[in-house]
Amino acid sequence: MAHVSVTIAGRAYRMACDEGQEEHLLGLGRQLDAKIDALRSSFGEIGDMRLAVMAGIMVADELSEMQRRAATLQQDLDELRQTRDNALQREQQTQMRVTQALTDAASRVEKLIDSLSKTGV
């Protein structure tokens, strides 16, 4: 298990993470710290806990919006896949009908040739 020191609102927090996730965790810490700094700039010194809660709610709101967008995109993707599958099925049916029509036409031509050859034309 790896450890990193994440600085948020001027305080360092030692945190454990999986090996290879150190930079990711540090980046998340920087994002949260930036949100707290932005809130501090907007509202002044209203208390570290309050700023942290507000930043957490902002992050949760962003996550909720991304989840909503992901669900909408997944629904759109599912609909597109269904449309594609329907189109492929229609294409396959059309190809089968065309093949059958060509086979029928070839059969009629062969019968006509047989008929003409028997009559001597």
UniProtKB/TrEMBL annotation:
Main location class: cytoplasm
BP GO annotations: division septum assembly; FtsZ-dependent cytokinesis; septin ring assembly
Keyword annotations: Cell cycle, Cell division, Coiled coil, Cytoplasm, Septation
Pfam families from the UniProt entry: ZapA
Localisation per UniProt entry: Cytoplasm
A single Gene Ontology CC term: cytosol
Coiled-coil stretches noted in the UniProt entry, renumbered to this chain: 63-97
Oligomer and partners: Homodimer. Interacts with FtsZ.
Function per UniProt: Activator of cell division through the inhibition of FtsZ GTPase activity, therefore promoting FtsZ assembly into bundles of protofilaments necessary for the formation of the division Z ring. It is recruited early at mid-cell but it is not essential for cell division.
Protein name as annotated: Cell division protein ZapA
